[in-house]
Amino acid sequence: MQASARKAEISTSVWLGMLSIYIVWGSTYLAIRFAVETIPPFLMAGVRNFIAGVILYAFMRLRGTPAPTRLNWRSAAVVGLLLLTGGNGLVSWAEKTVPSAVTALLVGAVPLWMILLDWIGGRYRDKSKRPSWLTFAGVLTGFGGIALLVGPGELSGHQVDLLGAGALLFGALLWAAGSLYSREAALPESPLLGTGMEMIAGGLGLFVLSGLAGEWGQFNLAAVSTKSLSAMLYLTVFGSLVGFASYTWLLRAAPTTLVSTYAYVNPVVAIFLGVLLANETITPRMLVAAVIILASVALITFTRQSARAKVDVNGTISD
């Protein structure tokens, strides 16, 4: 009886955690758009991540988590610079010109980049680890959907800003690189402590990038709107603290196939909120591109998970 109750409690906790990353991470794209209306993008992202990182790091250390080593800090700095300074920073910058719904779809290219980076890095020299033809079909289809999304033509009332779209694709590439690096990086045993360290390092990198972009001289505190300030606070508390905490816990408590579904649920949430709260326009072309991109991500996710399951059953290799 107690075991059944415990199982039900875990199941409820898992789905609450999934609901949080579905809605919270899906809503961050619109929150970023509101935040960068009157706050410089790199500075906003830096403040958000640095504050969240300090809070999370201090919380874990006060709970008795062992202090990280110098090697831990170096690894966390690399991950933080790639994911947050590069990935999150470029998303924040691009949303000055690219609608939040389009941004979410372009960020969905992360799984596509991860496949290509693994291939370039030689990870698939072992034939038993190579993705199936369905996975590569998903990659090609996904980039086809991206080409349709940003190609010439009217979208969301105007043509997608190519510089912003390029920044988003490069940011997705950096996020993919950071994610792959973190698999083998010498990070702390505590995922939450490591996340706090990554946010601190990424936040500091964003402060430097903000200075190089001239944002410090342009920033006017009196010009910051209530909407932008509220959005930044939301991103700090819910996007960085709640979202990352839920994600790192779910990686240990739930099946990877379930957790990975956030990659194609988030854009749907972002599109819905963009239309509802920011009057963003959804065109037939955008809907077709969205279906293509999201279907390709789903295909990649489930074919790779299916391949891993077969490998684990045979007992030959572990990913």
Comma- or semicolon-separated keywords:
13 helices, disordered C terminus, globular
Brief synopsis:
The protein has helices at 2-35, 41-62, 70-94, 100-107, 110-120, 133-150, 162-184, 191-212, 215-218, 226-253, 256-259, 262-278, 284-314. It is mostly helical and 319 residues long.
Written account of the structure:
By secondary structure, the chain is mostly helical. It has one domain. The chain is 77% helix and 0% strand. It has 13 helices and no strands. Helix 5 packs across helix 7. The protein is globular, with a radius of gyration of 20 Å. The two termini are 36 Å apart.
State the helical fraction: over 70%
Biggest sheet statistics? none
Euclidean distance between termini CA atoms: 36 Å
How would you describe the shape?
A: globular
Topology, number of strands:
0
Helices, strands, pairings?
Elements: H1 2-35, H2 41-62, H3 70-94, H4 100-107, H5 110-120, H6 133-150, H7 162-184, H8 191-212, H9 215-218, H10 226-253, H11 256-259, H12 262-278, H13 284-314
